Amino acid sequence: MDLLINILASFAVIIILTFLKDFVLPIIKAKLYDEPNISGEWNYYYSIQDNAEPVGKINFRQFGKKISGVCEIHKSRNANEPTNKKYSVKGIFKSGRLVATYENVNTQGYSIGVIYLMLSSDGSKFIGKVMYYNPETNKTEAYDLQLSK
Fold this sequence. Notes:
Order of helices and strands: HEEEEEEEE
Distance between the termini: 58 Å
Shape: globular
Strand order of the largest sheet: 1-2-3-4-5-6-7-8
Largest sheet: 8 strands, antiparallel, barrel
Number of helices: 1
Structural class: alpha+beta
Strand content: over 45%
């Protein structure tokens, strides 16, 4: 019986420590973190031109330097036709730079890529690149990417 109690107590300690590490500590770090909070909804553009049309939205959650989010794309890149793709995004935001990976939630392990963005000085837009492997061309491709509030 003592063995069972010790095992259950160990699991409880592991759960509490994991909760503190993954949720409480990032909130405390966020209060001390000297970077803008980028949480919220951003428009997603395939172009860095000022007159570009948004093709989707990305919603970030920020805990200190950790970033997570969901990206929904409504227009395809090449044909500019309607589409409905949803990606999960995870990464870090530090020194005005966002470095993240993304993965299509419907084809996990297949549609994966990398995002590298720089935040503008006024904090209203990100500009950078998105890179992924295109199985149709058998090449890694990189494209311009812009996010704006």
